[in-house]
Every structure is written in structure tokens, then in C-alpha cells.
Amino acid sequence: MGAVHGVYLKYVGLSAVSGLGFYLMDGSATLGERRLASDMRLVAAAGVLGYSCLLNGLIAVLFKLEKGMGLIGKDPKTGQIPLWSYMFFFPFHLPTMTYTAIHTRSGTMKVKGKDGKTKKVPVPVASEVQPGWWVGGCYGHELGKDWSGIIDLTVEFPEKMKTKSYLSVPTWDGVPATPEQLEEAAIFGVEARKGGDVMVHCAHGRGRSTTVMCACLVKAGLYETWQEAFEKGVKPGRACCKLNGLMRKALTAWQEQYVNGKKAQ
């Protein structure tokens, strides 16, 4: 989930492991150890594994289809996730929160020091890639800042940061915003920047947030193209940022429609 390539495979793996666990527990009962059926703890565990198999399999399919972002129930106005979502979708939420917490604390990126040598350093919860423009993950609240605007790309995490204005652009991890959503986010970001610093964040501050930040920097007039914004405006300030093929395709379509197209008019 921290990488921007093949993120859905994590949920394929969760589904497969859960399904295998369910099969082994159910199979042991049918092979003569039927006394296990009387142990409600084992019955419940088998049920959880079966449910996890189905749920994470469904989410993996939705990742590939780039659909169903509203399934988790995140409030588009407040960024909060309701209690029922945590209860009903716990086989999704629990591993997602656990992995993200571990990855946030242990993630590293390669940077060049003043001596020209490359070294690994911890990935900060957020980075100011250009004056007033920040890219980060869902732990950005640890900075303790009050933001002029926040653009939140997650479906899987509640918003914890303080801000004057908030825009939710829910996307699955590794799946980019559409060209239309990129335009909406870029306009929002430029307007919010007039009042102070702007945070664009996803789960880890690597792919989804970088995609939107590239559009924001072009819309703000800092760079001519998203490619230039990525290479010169984002990467130098946050070396872990990456764009997968879908993200590059979305940015190219956005550039052609909303930047180059308007210049031609």
C-alpha cells in the first residue's frame, strides 16, 4: 500500500490467505474432528476468515475497476469515517491501519547529501516541496499545523488535520484522481494557497498526493507541464514520490484538456 504499483495485490493476498485459513479450518472439521464445531471460538474464527476472504477479494476487484470509492462510507464534507464502517469492514481497516503505521515509522528514502553521496533517511510525515505547498501522508497531523487548505485523497483514513477548507477526492491507494477531479483539486489548492499553506495528502505521501500536487503547481503557474512539476517541483523536496502509469496517464489527459486546451482557445 505504500508503493504505487500493484497496490491491489495486497488485498488479493489478504483474500487468499484468509480463504486458505477458512478452508483449512473447515476441512479439519469435515475430516472427523467435528468436535471443533462445538468450539464457538473456532467457528467464529472460521467465519471471520471467510468474510475477510470475500471482502478483501471484492476490494481488490474494485481497485482494478477504479470503482466503489464510496463503499467505506467516508464523509466527503468532514473526512470522517463512521463507526459502522470500522465494525462492518474491519477485515479491511485493521490490516490497512497496521501496515500504514508500520510503513510510516520505518519507511526510508534515498537523498543526496552535501558531499554528493546518496544516503537513506526516514521519510517525513509530510514535506514542503515548494513554498506553502506540502505533500504528505495520513500522519501529517503530527506536524501540529493549521492549514489553509487540505486535499485528502484517501478513502481508507479519517481526516485528523486542522484546516480552514477541506476537499475530499476519494481514491483507492495507487489509483489516481480523474482529469476532472485533478482540475477541481488544482483550482481548490490555488485558491486555498492565498490564505496560507496547503497540504495534499494520501496514505503515505507518495503517489496519489504527488499526482494532485503536480496539477496544483502547474495551475499555480509555477511550472508549464506536470512532468516539469514532478521532476523539479516535487521530487527534489520529497524523493520518495512516485507516479505509476495510471497516474501519468491521468495527468497527461488533464494537461491536454485543462492546460493546453485552454491555451489553444
Largest sheet: 5 strands, mixed
Bulk shape: globular
Count of DSSP-assigned helices: 8
Strand order of the largest sheet: 3-4-7-5-6
Q: End-to-end span in angstroms?
A: 41 Å
Q: Which H/E pattern describes the elements? A: HHHHEEEEEEHEHHH
User: What's the overall average pLDDT, rounded?
Assistant: 89
User: Helix amount, in percent?
Assistant: 40-55%
Overall SS class? alpha/beta
- How many strand elements? 7
- What is the CA-based Rg, rounded? 21 Å
Concise structural overview:
The chain has 265 residues and is an alpha/beta fold. It contains 8 helices and 7 strands, in the order H-H-H-H-E-E-E-E-E-E-H-E-H-H-H.
What does this structure look like?
With 265 residues, the protein is α/β, with parallel strands linked by helices. The chain has 8 helices and 7 strands. The strands form 2 sheets. The chain has a 5-stranded mixed β-sheet with strand order 3-4-7-5-6. A two-stranded antiparallel ribbon has the order 1-2. β1 (108-112) and β2 (118-122) form a beta hairpin. α5 (179-193) packs across α6 (208-219). The longest helix has 26 residues, at 40-65.
Main features:
alpha/beta, disordered N terminus, 7 strands, 265 residues, five-stranded mixed β-sheet
